[in-house]
């Protein structure tokens, strides 16, 4: 009998709060009050911008983000003398001495502290760090450090930066932790970073004292993302963040990252390319496709839950023992490959955990759409860092509100917030749509499920189209069951 289809109506997290124009500034101030702490105050106490307290200007920048206002729009509508003039906000965002990473981690740790004190029920889902990158398009060629970067989704080059983000899934909520911006030099010496040398000479330049946070962020621009990712993870550990898994896509799986994770107390789980890298199996070396052909001499295992066939095998990659899962969902022509250093992990559990990685796609979509993530057009690189950091702070605050209004119901600090229903968490909704698609539509279509899920997250109209098909199929199943019962 075909399992019942559970219709998943939406994959957004924060849209309900952000689109409520009447109450969102009130809710924002309410949320901000929960994140105020002595540590945050002490960080702000020595920072003044042209006579204005940093904390005041920082909150107003947060308010601009949630309202989708530019500095010009915000200062034009306000009669408050504390709002200051435009250069007050620009001066703050352009200041290389501000440690935005420290500010974001204060927000993250405050979030986790509040959650711990609210006596939630234990969550069965594993805590995961998630690493992913996204293209942040820009318009001006005169921006500091700008260049053309390759967009893997559109398969073309765009003017902008690559944003590398490290995030935490704590079992229920998704929290952005840290990020770095990157450019791509390319292979053509006559067009470094995909630009003419004359264009690069015209770019904005700024001197920063060595050791300042802004100088360190600028240095990261041309460093390998794998190297920076390891630094981001190490920083998260120093800040007290712990997780059971690091989840990555195929662009991050390499020897350096695997060796680094082996020395840690968490496991690596990531999609891997079916490329020419060699794995040693039974004393012989094979690339991924050769190894799959070798395994096909035996009968594939089957997952009834996921409607898939798979092989699992422990191999040695560059002297490192890893476990590989080759899988193909029903009626699919292509095989996919998952890699982990958790040798006891089952296939069903590996797929279930890996799908948590999709929550970062939801973050990218909502933060770009509602919080203008990466939309800053300032020529100053420090302003780019500040703008993204402020968007992350807003996202963390709204996630706390979502956590207790929609997932937990009445928490101690949200006793006055009314609710009608406890929603499924984002991960449960993502997992639900994955199973819905896998058990119905994709079992008869030869479609890449990774691409479909990504498209569904990014395109609301596609999600609604698929829901109509799922609802129709669900009605057909109910009709057939009633007919069979009769």
Tell me what you see in this structure.
Helices cover 43% and strands 18% of the residues. With 486 residues, the protein is of the alpha+beta class. Among the domains are: 255-356, no CATH class; 426-485, no CATH class. The strands form 3 sheets. Strands 3, 4, 5, 6, 7, 8, 11, 12, 13 and 14 form a 10-stranded mixed sheet that branches. β11 and β12 (308-317) form a beta hairpin. The model is unreliable at 1-11 and 408-423 (pLDDT under 50).
Structural class: alpha+beta
Approximate strand percentage = 15-25%
Q: What is the CA-based Rg, rounded?
A: 24 Å
**Number of discrete helical segments:** 18
Which stretches are poorly predicted, pLDDT < 50 over at least 5 residues? 1-11, 408-423
Rough shape? globular
What is the helix fraction of residues, given as a range?
40-55%
Distance between the termini: 16 Å
What is the mean predicted local confidence, pLDDT? 81
Largest sheet, in brief, is:
10 strands, mixed
The total strand number stands at 14
Layout of helices and strands, plus pairs?
Elements: H1 15-18, H2 24-35, H3 38-44, E1 48-49, E2 52-53, H4 54-67, H5 71-77, H6 86-93, H7 100-117, E3 128-137, E4 147-151, E5 156-169, E6 174-182, H8 197-201, H9 213-219, H10 225-238, E7 245-248, H11 255-262, E8 267-272, E9 279-281, E10 284-286, H12 288-295, E11 301-303, E12 308-317, E13 320-329, E14 336-340, H13 347-354, H14 359-370, H15 381-407, H16 426-439, H17 449-458, H18 460-485
Parallel strand pairs: 3-7, 7-8
Antiparallel strand pairs: 1-2, 3-5, 4-5, 5-6, 8-14, 9-10, 11-12, 12-13, 13-14
Helix pairs in contact: 2-4, 2-15, 4-15, 7-15, 17-18
């Amino acid at each position: 009998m075909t399992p019942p289809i559970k219709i998943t109506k939406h994959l957004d997290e924060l849209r309900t709060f952000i689109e409520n124009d009447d109450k969102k500034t009130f809710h924002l101030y309410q949320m901000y009050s929960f994140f105020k702490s002595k540590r945050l105050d002490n960080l702000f106490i020595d920072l003044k911008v042209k006579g204005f307290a940093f904390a005041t200007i920082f909150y107003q920048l947060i308010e601009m983000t949630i309202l989708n206002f530019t500095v010009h729009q915000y200062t034009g509508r306000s009669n408050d003398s504390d709002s200051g003039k435009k250069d007050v906000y620009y001066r703050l965002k352009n200041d290389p001495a501000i440690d935005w990473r420290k500010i974001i981690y204060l927000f993250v740790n405050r979030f986790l502290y509040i959650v711990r004190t609210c006596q939630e029920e234990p969550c069965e889902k594993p805590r995961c760090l998630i690493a992913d990158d996204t293209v942040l398009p820009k318009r001006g060629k005169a921006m500091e450090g700008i260049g053309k970067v390759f967009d893997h989704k559109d398969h073309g080059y765009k003017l902008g930066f690559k944003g590398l983000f490290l995030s935490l899934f704590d079992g229920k909520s998704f929290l952005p932790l840290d990020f770095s911006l990157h450019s791509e030099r390319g292979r053509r010496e006559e067009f470094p970073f995909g630009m003419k040398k004359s264009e690069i000479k015209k770019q904005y330049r700024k001197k920063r004292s060595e050791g300042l946070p802004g100088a360190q962020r600028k240095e990261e621009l041309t460093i390998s993302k794998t190297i920076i990712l390891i630094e981001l993870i190490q920083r998260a550990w120093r800040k007290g963040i712990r997780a059971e898994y690091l989840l990555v896509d195929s662009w991050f799986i390499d020897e350096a990252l695997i060796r680094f994770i082996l020395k840690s107390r968490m496991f690596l789980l990531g999609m891997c390319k079916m490329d020419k890298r060699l794995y040693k199996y039974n004393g012989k070396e094979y690339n991924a496709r050769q190894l799959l052909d070798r395994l096909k001499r035996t009968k594939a295992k089957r997952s009834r839950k996921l409607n898939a066939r798979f092989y699992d095998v422990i191999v040695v990659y560059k002297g490192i023992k890893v476990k590989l899962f080759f899988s193909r969902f029903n009626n699919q022509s292509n095989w996919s490959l998952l890699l982990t250093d958790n040798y006891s992990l089952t296939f069903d559990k590996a797929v279930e955990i890996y799908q948590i990685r999709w929550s970062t796609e939801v973050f990218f979509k909502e933060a770009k759409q509602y919080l203008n993530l990466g939309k800053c057009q300032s020529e100053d690189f420090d302003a780019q860092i500040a703008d993204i950091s402020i968007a992350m702070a807003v996202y963390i605050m709204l996630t706390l509100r979502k956590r207790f209004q929609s997932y937990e119901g009445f928490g101690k600090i949200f006793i006055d917030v009314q609710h009608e229903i406890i929603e499924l968490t984002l991960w449960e909704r993502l997992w639900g749509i994955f199973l819905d698609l896998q058990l119905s539509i994709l079992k008869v279509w030869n479609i890449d499920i990774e691409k479909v899920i990504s498209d569904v997250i990014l395109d609301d109209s596609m999600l609604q189209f698929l829901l109509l098909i799922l609802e129709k199929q669900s009605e057909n199943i109910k009709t057939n069951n009633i007919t069979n019962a009769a």
